[in-house]
Amino acid sequence: MKFPFFLKYFKDEEIERKISFLHSTKLFEKIPLRSIIYVLDALQERSYVKGETVFSEGEIGRALFIVSSGRIDLFRNAPDGSKKKISSISPGEFFGEMALLEERPRTTTAIAGEDSHVFLLFKIKLEALLYSKPSIGVIISTQLAKIISARLREMLDDIEQKAGLK
User: Which helix (H) or strand (E) segment is 47 a member of?
Assistant: First the structure.
């Protein structure tokens, strides 16, 4: 992948790797490569060991998580008190996106299914991007809306199929 001219001054393979990874994700793929550095600057990084809780159902959400390596498993609390696994999030995928739209209680518990590294995009950082770099913020918001819409459509298809409507 050819990087923008200003990155040659960094000569930092780690930054180049992160930029390349972020640009390959659905959320950031439409952002010009030269602008991904602003996204990287807005993100925080965190590592989790296998079995570590990322967040718990009911906590107030303030960030979206992008899995860079490893696997994060999502669970819902069942009426009997047990946890039911509902999804696994792999590298390049994200979860917790509802926190960018509204600061409400989390609907799942996220636990590292294996040692994992994630990028966090806090709502306040996305809002700052919207004001400081509106073109980037608009792209992220549009991509987020498209992805949420596709997930909702998929969920509705599943419900219709289970209800025998399809």
Answer: strand 44-48
The arithmetic mean of pLDDT across residues 56-81, rounded, is 94
CA distance 124 to 128: 6
- DSSP labels for 23-45? HHSTTTTTS-GGGHHHHHHH-EE
Q: Which residue has the tokens 């994700």?
A: 25
Q: With left for phi above 0 and alpha for psi between -120 and 50, is residue 43 left, alpha or beta? A: beta
Q: What single-letter amino acid sits at 67?
A: V
- Going along the chain from its start, the domains and CATH numbers come out as 9-162 (2.60.120.10)
DSSP type of residue 59? S
**CB-based contact 149:141 (threshold 8 Å):** no
pTM of the predicted model as reported, rounded to 2 decimal places: 0.86
User: Tokens 């991904």 correspond to what residue?
Assistant: 36
Listed in order, strand segments (DSSP E) in 56-155 are 63-77, 83-89, 94-95, 109-122
pLDDT in tens, 91-126: 999 999 988 888 889 999 999 999 999 999 999 999
Q: Give the pLDDT score at 12.
A: 77
